[in-house]
Amino acid sequence: MNAPHPALRLSDRIAELLTDPAASPVAWSSRPQWRQSLAHGAPGIALLHIERAATGLGPWEPVRAWLSIAAGTAVTSGTDSYLYYGAPALAHALTCAAQARPGTYRRALDHLDQVVAADALRRCEQAEARTERGDLPTLAEFDTIRGLTGIGSVLLRRAPDGEPIRRILTCLVRLTEDVKHDGEVLPGWWTLDGPSGERDERFPGGHANNGLAHGIAGPLALLALALRRGVEVDGQREALRTVLAWLERWRDGHAWPYWTTAAHLTGPDRRPLAPQRPSWCYGTAGLARAQQLAALALADPHLRNDAESALATALVDPKALATTTDLSACHGYAGLAHIAHRTAADATPRNAGRLRSAAALLLDTTHPPYADPDEQAHSLLATAGPAFLEGAAGTALALLAPATGSTPATRWDACLLTS
């Protein structure tokens, strides 16, 4: 077995600094989302310690401490809950904990299963009614962060044989059907809002979001993951092909635009994309992994090679990497290293070698030679905070598998739709 990459020292030090919730600065712990936010609070930090305990890198005590913070108040459900907040967020964290220690948190998970399933069915009813009216969706109806895709990722792990996950998949299949709006034929996931989810004068006529966090790559990944697990509804394969064809239409080399606007649909020939960060949330890393998962589900070797090659190329493109400015799991170097490592595990031998080489370079960038891990960890906490999605906990977590050459023990990254 090869020696761990030195970036593991940075991950270790971050985890040590985040061991005790009571030591958290008031500026963090006083925030309203602290207890229930997977992105910004205790459930996300718990994921770091759960994975470390599951792989023998850390003790179980910090897991208990952080999960007690997460479960220390009434858990939010209903319209205010989604994968990254409330009942689904806690369900994801506890599922990872139960995978690390089978039999634990059974009663809590049984309760959360019922809550998440009921909320999922209500959301499906709303999506179905919206479709029948002929209205266009909002991003929050279907995306990974706030919508059906994110909730579906929880249900696919917790209740893959249940009715709620099948209803979600059916809603996402219908989302891929073209719609007619104001005389224009548009993809079914077209929204009248801007990328923020609010009306935006910079997006007259709305847009089609392509990203994994907020766009159609999220449903693509969930539909593919479900199909690989044997969970299939009518039209699922055709829906995958529809989304893949859309993405191929807008592909520019090894990159895709973050979104497509009305001007893109009606304007002259497209200009080449400017360099953009190849991130999980919007960039090539998330899109290519989603397409690789779809290729594996559909047994399509050409698509698989295209997706893997696009990611391997993007991760060594100096202009693209120059747009990456942090270490985060969401859109930073650690997140890119993790996705490269995950994608390599499912890649053809040639592409796997390219991806592993790219991951090693990304680890070197995250933790440069001779860098002081203690100084780097303190600096990261001071500037980015402790959070999972854009902060120190996520950076530490994303470093674990590529730095040790292992597979995540708890599938913590199911919340990223990368597994």
Structure characterization notes:
It is built from 19 helices and four strands. Helix 8 runs parallel beside helix 10 (217-228). It has helices at residues 7-17, 26-29, 42-54, 61-70, 87-100, 106-133, 139-142, 148-158, 163-175, 217-228, 236-250, 262-266, 284-298, 301-314, 318-321, 333-345, 349-366, 373-384, 392-404; strands spanning 179-181, 184-186, 207-209, 259-261. A hairpin with a 2-residue loop joins strand 1 (179-181) and strand 2. The strands form two sheets. Strands 1-2 form a two-stranded antiparallel ribbon. The relative contact order is 0.13.
Average residue pLDDT: 96
Specify the biggest β-sheet: 2 strands, antiparallel
Helical fraction: 40-55%
The gyration radius over C-alpha positions equals: 20 Å
The count of DSSP E runs of length 2 or more, i.e. the number of strands, is 4
Count of alpha and pi helical runs: 19
Output the helix-strand order: HHHHHHHHHEEEHHEHHHHHHHH
| Portion in beta strands | under 5%
Distance between the termini: 24 Å
Structural class: mainly alpha
- Molecular shape: globular
Strand order of the largest sheet: 1-2
Uncertain spans, ≥5 residues at pLDDT below 50? none
Summarize the structure.
The chain has 419 residues and is mainly α. The chain is 55% helix and 3% strand.
Write the layout of secondary structure elements.
Elements: H1 7-17, H2 26-29, H3 42-54, H4 61-70, H5 87-100, H6 106-133, H7 139-142, H8 148-158, H9 163-175, E1 179-181, E2 184-186, E3 207-209, H10 217-228, H11 236-250, E4 259-261, H12 262-266, H13 284-298, H14 301-314, H15 318-321, H16 333-345, H17 349-366, H18 373-384, H19 392-404
Antiparallel strand pairs: 1-2, 3-4
